[in-house]
Amino acid sequence: MPRFFRRPASRIPPEILPPDFLTRHGLARRLYLEPLTGLTPPHPWAPLTDAEWEALAPHLAATGCGLRAPGRAGRPLADPRARLDAVFRAVTLKRSNAEGGGRAPWRALPEGFGKAETIARCHRRWAHAGLWGRLLRAVAARDAPPALVALTWRICCAFRRAVRVLGLAAIVLARRLRLHSALPAPSQYLPDPELAAITMPVCLAAARHMLAHPRWRPPPGFLRLLQDFHRFAGGLVRIPGALEPP
Fold first, then answer.
1. Per-residue pLDDT of the chain in tens (246 residues, 90 and over written 9)
2. All structural domains of the chain with their residue ranges
3. Residue limits of the Insertion element IS402-like domain (predicted)?
């Protein structure tokens, strides 16, 4: 059992660490099970089918990404379907193991899809417009059409490529939707503000107890537990690109 889930042997007052704390918050599931069970199997890239494009087009129109919905400003793209195909192709490219693995750079996009800089800029612009977050929510919905569900892996790849643009809120969203392939690294290596909110009351309760009982000292196992809380909530400073989900 990981040290994180070992309750310190010395007695800790239940007002600091309730006996059911780990199970009540589902920390084993959150930190170890969901990062594995929430991965979407990859599949070979292929051009969008008519059914897939029909499922995607309303979302592009609603966010003003390539298609213009009634009442929205902006110039539509000449071929938004081809542009989306190019984005999906770029974000699903991987480096070989000899090159270190992980995502391939934008410049690896084959020339037939257009200029890599243009596709990368379009991807970032659509991220700011909210397209990737909207699509991620759409594929996670219970009533998502099969044609859209078939694109889950590609949408996850596009979303995780935009995490740096979208910030911490994107990581929180992917976790809440349990689409861990949309994260740029295994979940337990990334910042987790919700975990921090869960564990902070334990730290505050321990501090209050020490003030009220000056002779009480927390057992070493409890201090290590708090360190683990901090480590999991804060994430790693540097994460190798090879750890990106497939």
1. 455 555 444 578 888 988 888 889 888 888 888 888 889 999 889 999 999 999 999 999 999 997 755 455 555 677 999 999 999 999 999 988 788 778 999 999 999 999 999 999 999 999 999 999 999 999 999 999 999 999 999 999 999 999 999 999 999 999 999 999 999 999 989 999 999 999 999 999 999 999 999 888 888 888 888 888 888 899 988 888 888 988
2. 3-38+189-243, 50-167
3. 48-135
Tokens of residue 148, six digits: 């859209």
Structure tokens at 4: 């994180």
